[in-house]
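Quick check before the chapter quiz. The format below is the same one you will see on the exam, so make sure you can read both the input and the output lines.
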Amino acid sequence: MPGELGKGESAFLKKYQEVHGLSPEESKQLPHPEKGKKIKETIEEIKKEIENLPQVTREISFHPTMPATQITNTLAQAIQIAINDGVDKGISFVYQTNNPYLIDAFHDILISHFIHLISE
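Here is the expected output.
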């Protein structure tokens, strides 16, 4: 991948290394199907972490009829937009849901996600 990695990409690589114990250089040696499998496993691990966040479990308890996957998918998409395109775009996306609980959960997740940037 040419150029410098974005923050989201760097965070993903860090998680990938935690889950698989492989550096990106070591992963280059894997067959293509194995790379895809490991990426999918990493994404699933991130999804599990999101589903277990207090903000998400609280959201699910407020909306027992709203599938957890819908909540986590919406929040994950909003976070991805915030990381890739800017926080303002992520906020705009989540506000379009008109769901105050999702908006609050997104706010809490953003704080949790970005706090490390000013703590290091």
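If your answer matched, good. The chain has two domains: 7-51, 55-120.
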